[in-house]
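We treat protein structure as text, and this decision shapes the records that our systems exchange. This encoding replaces a full spatial description with a residue-level series of whole-number codes. Below, we set out a record of this kind in full and without editing:
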Amino acid sequence: MKRTVAFSKNATNLFFHILTRCNLRCRHCYINPAQHGRETLPLATITRWLALFADKSQTTNVIFLGGEPTLHPDLAQAVQSARRLGYQSVTIDTNGYLFHDILARVTPAEVDYFSFSLDGASAPTNDRIRGAGSYAACTAGIRRAAAAGFATSVIFTVSRDNLDELQQMPPLLQTLGVERFFIQVIGVRGQSARGPAAAQGPAGPQVSRQEWCQSVPAVAARAAAMGITVSYPKVFLDPGEPFACAGRVACNYFIFPNGRVYRCPLCEDYPLHSLMIADDTLRETGGINEAGLFQLDIPEGCVMNKLIQPGNLAYDETGRPLYRVACCLLKEELSPD
């Protein structure tokens, strides 16, 4: 069954980067220490910041990220703090190395998903993107988590480096016992926005609209037929389909160790954050920021995409957009029949 996952006013999703340190140096990593900080947040700070968002909606979910969150020695206690504060679901995004024996320090009742980043169906492709040995470590981590009773998911970031292996992912995930598959589109931010990788179009890391539309839905359907729930960003709107911005109607917060809080992940390379945590208080920022940009209506759809990733767009001879780009938080979901 396929459905578009609409934005919800009744759910809060907290993407909490508790540190920016990582053991890998992935080609497309979006972490930008100059903008996000280099701190490793103390457990007491993590707990206080979790409390700021715990009662913001009927349903509150937290995703612990880094860097690599399992490098944090107090991740298990942070998970337990989130549960005590009433967070409905807890996810840990990881590269699979699973430091500090994290699988033995939390339980499946405390962590809803361990979500693993895997960017190739083979070691050569994945390791070229994420680093030598990362494929073996990640797939071993998935097996260990599943054997310990945890639900697992995999995040695959589609780029020109790995598009040809996307179709091989469903049988691999089925073999690993993965329950959910998240196909992501690579963004021009972080590492992808620096150096030669910053190029857009045929020379850059992003795939074209035609390549995305021809590849991703078909692979998602194949994975769903194998019993795996699949989610991927809609990216390109169908003709006549209305545009909506999650920044206007949804409660998504992207928190970084330096206290910046963004509502749109495309803005994270810039000081456009609309919120800031200072003295354990959530405050609105002044001046020009993402909140004001959310209110703009343009023919291309997503304002942030027009500003930051214009290579995703195309125009006819009169200058009219050939299609609109969706909010990156609008998802298509396919569940097994």
